[in-house]
């Protein structure tokens, strides 16, 4: 009995680690296996102007296949032209993707600026533009200094698979909420209030939607990591 117990103690952690490693999947892998099926169904829904069905398909696809996977480490540049990697950000990350031809919804930028100010000690806010640096530099003026503005210029980037799919697979803008280990906790699209909505109302709608997701998915993640570090120390 003692020998069996000793064997279990010796191989148990190794087996567990291998199993844990096997279960860890990445964003790029999930897209490879499941994106084409989602696109086929979504294209059919939008062809018949069934936008509610399209929204349901998006939420089902992201919650079933993408959330829980880990975002691949990929490269982009900041406004100083310095190459930066996603994993350089050590806190949980709120990542939102834009392009110069994709206008943020009404009230979205003020809401992001406010949230970045409130949660800057716990969350890294990153706005990723798919565009040339000159255009991005002008657009960056709207955002708070608490937000990291980065870009990928595809004309200068051969592009890893994940970079291409981040832009083209889920549309723009798309928000990715990543834990400190870059596990995808939530994926959401921006709130788009009707055009006649008052600016303050639009800001409030965006703020509430984003703050709810950030506090649930990212702040809790930060607190868990912080607590683990305190216990370890």
UniProtKB/TrEMBL annotation:
Gene3D superfamilies cross-referenced by the UniProt entry: Glutaredoxin
Q: Which Pfam families match?
A: AhpC-TSA
User: What PROSITE patterns does this protein's entry cite?
Assistant: THIOREDOXIN_2
Under CDD domains, the record lists: TlpA_like_family (cd02966)
Q: Which residues form the Thioredoxin domain?
A: 65-213
Question: Which InterPro entries is this protein grouped with?
Answer: AhpC/TSA, Thioredoxin-like_sf, Thioredoxin_domain
Q: Name one GO molecular function term.
A: antioxidant activity
Q: What is this protein called?
A: TlpA family protein disulfide reductase
Which species does this protein come from?
Christiangramia aestuarii
Q: Lineage of the source organism?
A: Bacteria, Pseudomonadati, Bacteroidota, Flavobacteriia, Flavobacteriales
């Amino acid at each position: 009995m003692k020998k069996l117990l000793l064997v279990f103690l010796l191989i148990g952690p190794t087996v567990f680690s291998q199993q844990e490693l096997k279960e860890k999947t990445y964003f790029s892998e999930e897209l490879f296996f499941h994106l084409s099926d989602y696109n086929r169904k979504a294209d059919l829904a939008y062809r018949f102007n069934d936008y509610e069905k399209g929204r349901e398909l998006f939420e089902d696809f992201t919650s079933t296949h993408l959330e829980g996977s880990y975002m691949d480490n990929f490269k982009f540049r900041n406004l100083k032209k310095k190459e930066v990697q996603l994993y350089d950000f050590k806190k949980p990350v709120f990542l939102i993707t834009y392009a110069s031809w994709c206008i943020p919804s009404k009230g979205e930028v003020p809401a992001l600026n406010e949230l970045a100010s409130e949660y800057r000690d716990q969350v890294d806010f990153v706005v990723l533009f798919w565009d040339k640096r000159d255009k991005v530099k002008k657009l960056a003026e709207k955002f708070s200094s608490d937000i990291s503005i980065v870009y990928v210029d595809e004309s200068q980037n051969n592009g890893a698979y994940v970079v291409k799919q981040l832009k083209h697979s889920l549309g723009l803008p798309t928000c990715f909420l990543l834990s400190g280990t870059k596990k995808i906790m939530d994926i959401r699209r921006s709130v788009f209030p009707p055009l006649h909505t008052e600016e303050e109302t639009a800001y409030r709608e965006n703020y509430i939607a984003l703050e709810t997701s950030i506090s649930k998915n990212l702040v809790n993640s930060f607190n868990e990591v912080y607590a683990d570090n305190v216990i370890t120390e």
